[in-house]
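Dear colleague,

As promised, here are the two records you asked about, laid out in our usual form so they can be pasted straight into your sheet.

NAME FIELD: protein one
SEQUENCE, THEN STRUCTURE:
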Amino acid sequence: MPGIAYLDNAATTAMRPEAVAAMLPFLTERFGNPSGAHAMARDARLALDDAREVLADALGCHPGEVVFTSGGTEGDNTAVFGAPSGGAAIVCSAIEHHAVLHPVQDRGGRIVPVDPDGLIDLDALAGVLDKQVELVSVMLVNNEIGTIQPLEAVAELVRDRAPRAVLHTDAVQAFPWLDVATLAGGADLVAVSAHKFGGPKGVGALVVREGASFTPRQVGGGQERDRRSGTHNVAGIVAMAEAARLTVEERKATVERVGRLRDRLADGLLATAPGTHESGDRRAKVAGCCHVCFEDIESEALLFLLEEQGILASAAASCASGAQDPSHVLAAIGVPRALARGSLRLSLGPTTTGDDIDRALAVIPPAVDRLRRLGS
């Protein structure tokens, strides 16, 4: 969109042109159903097989361990609801995406606190792990403040204290920035979503490692080796694979460039907007996340002013008025309710430019000052 500085990449990214080009033939002349037996069906099935291999390389697993889904929420829900019920226990951190947190709470799970930077309390985790635990879910990167969790240490604790447990990680926000193949190597279940790294919406993948306890949630057609039934979204899967391939190929350069832009943005806001508080330790975050809270304003009003001047951002899950609860993530890291009301998530991506940062630094501090003077 001309004249727009898009700083909401954690919500969704623009599709890569290469991913669009990859999917188009499967929306037109190559429209076969891969579950069939004729030539057009076989063509679609071959495309699925190729995409599965690309995703397996990107995620650090065998092709047969890739299960195609509709996105991160389905992957997370499948992991949690697929764990045994009855007397078994399930565990997650206090700052999980609601796609994990809500089903864990619904099932009476154990919630582990985090420190003020958003890092899981490993001592508290150790204290809730026992032989009754069947599932532990700890996201690799938080979707709101960008904190990277020590997943390797989590995996060691789980293997030692809860040997029956399956370890799941929501890697949806991690994949654009981190080597998920390595960092999530100790997890049995790994969820990703294509639209977070330049692919289309409505398609994702769940790694289900061989031998992991897993109960399918979507049955009836036998697709994905009976682990997720339903006609494949071939076009979306092919596009996701191409976006994943390019993301891995370009990740190092993107992280270095975007990290510099993020630092300039965060430092600029801290220097020019009094009463700005950066959420968490920047050194423990992914490169694309700049999360701040402003004293004495409300996010809803700020977002309105920013959009008027071409800045598209998010308050994430933070409250927009005194009648709503603050973000569960900010509450978990100890941000006071009044300060959490003024939160702003500025998430950068591969398409972010220096001009976008210049515009944000020119617009945001005066907007914050204006709201304070108006009594936001």
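NAME FIELD: protein two
SEQUENCE, THEN STRUCTURE:
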Amino acid sequence: MAFPDPQRIFAPDLDFEALEAEAWQYQLTHNPVVKRFAGLLGRTDFFLPIRFFRDFEVKTGDWEPNLVFRSSGTTGQVSSRHFVRDAALYQESLHRGFRHFYGDQSPVIFALLPNYLERGDSSLVYMVTDWIRAFGQSESGFYLYDHDALYKGLVEALEQNQSILLIGVTFALLDFAEAYQLDLPPEVVVMETGGMKGKRREMVRAEVHALLQSSFGRAQIHSEYGMTELLSQGYALDGTHFQSPPWMKVVITDPYVPGRVLAPGQTGRINIVDLANLDSCIRIQTDDLGRMDEAGRFTVLGRLDHAELRGCNLMVE
């Protein structure tokens, strides 16, 4: 069986179900972890538990990784690892995903990602670095804990009428919002991601966004949903309802009845089909609780009981 052509993932006429079936069959044959788990379960209609990225090398085929990303987790946890065969495939997913939701803009990208930036093996930092390289303005950059420099940079960009994207880990954005008041125009996008990282008390997303809005004026408050184990991301342009790019699909299942898919409006486990995970595993069972609406958008409602806290999304609705 031939390895599926990666370029089909981003084709305008993508037949999602057909490519998913083909890629999944390939992974069931050539991914030792997926193949072994299928044998133990005695079925193939499953999503691979996300913790397997912590316990095993989840690779389809025999190759040396081009990149290795590790999850942030919290102190004392063992990190998940995502072995990436082809950095170009990840970059294409990053670019096309951003363009799908935000068009062809080239903003000044201000990145406030302490904790992630300090590690050096974060897929989130790689994503933002690649955005800056590919389409960010020259004034773009990362800010660790230097809120004064971030404030000055934002003011200068506003004075020059530049397009602005401020992306930050949630706790760091809240710290910055408490220290500075900025009457940002509605064209500015503030994108929160990554949760609290144990730095602040957990909050519902609406509370977080209200606090950000009180300090950032009329700016749009968006959210990003991503994780180490995925090469694609979801975005909530209204801050709450996440949408997926065409090559990524969310399936909500019953946490207590294996394989039972829930109807829109019902709360259950979030599972992801990410066709960009061609070299690892396209079908991932997360430990997040969520709900799908009739339009195919999903909300994140928290974590399943007994699930490890992770950096990808520690807030609840």
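A couple of things worth noting about protein two: The first helix runs from residue 16 to 30. DSSP finds eight helices and 13 strands in the chain.

Best,
R.
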